[in-house]
Design the sequence.
């Protein structure tokens, strides 16, 4: 895989979540004693969420073991994105996407509302990327994000 390969922004016009009372959206942001090893991209509840890579949707993933109404997807890259694994949280999967092969920009779900769990938070999707098994900052890889 070319290390310069880019991925698509999963949210049309989505931006990096700015700091609110729950923290900032950038990779490595503080979460109290922990760190944020993903990137938050602003999304309106219900907004279409797009696959950032070419690959196969492996399974649903759950950000909270004790609150299964929040869901996400695990995508395994292929083609130009071989070696990339994407986890994306806070979307309701589109019907029939599990085990589906997807291309960059293809709709995979709709953004969920987070304000019921985190009052006052900026609604967003959370994306984590592993490249050859190593967690990396998604932002430098994403086209058209600010
Ligand atoms: Zn996040």
Sequence:
């Amino acid at each position: 895989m070319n290390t310069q390969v880019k991925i698509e922004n999963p949210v049309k016009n989505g931006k990096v979540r700015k700091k609110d009372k729950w923290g900032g959206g950038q990779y490595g942001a503080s979460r109290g004693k922990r760190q944020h090893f993903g990137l938050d991209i602003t999304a309106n509840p219900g907004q279409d969420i797009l696959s950032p890579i070419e690959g196969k949707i492996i399974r649903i993933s759950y950000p909270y073991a004790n609150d299964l109404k929040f869901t996400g997807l695990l995508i395994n890259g292929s083609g130009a994105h071989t070696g990339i694994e994407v986890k994306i949280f806070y979307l309701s999967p589109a019907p029939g996407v599990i085990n589906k092969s997807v291309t960059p920009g293809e709709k995979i779900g709709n953004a969920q509302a987070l304000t019921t769990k985190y009052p006052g938070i900026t609604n967003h999707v959370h994306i984590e990327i592993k490249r050859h098994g190593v967690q990396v900052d998604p932002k430098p890889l994403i086209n058209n994000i600010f």
User: Anything to note?
Assistant: The chain has no helices and twelve strands.
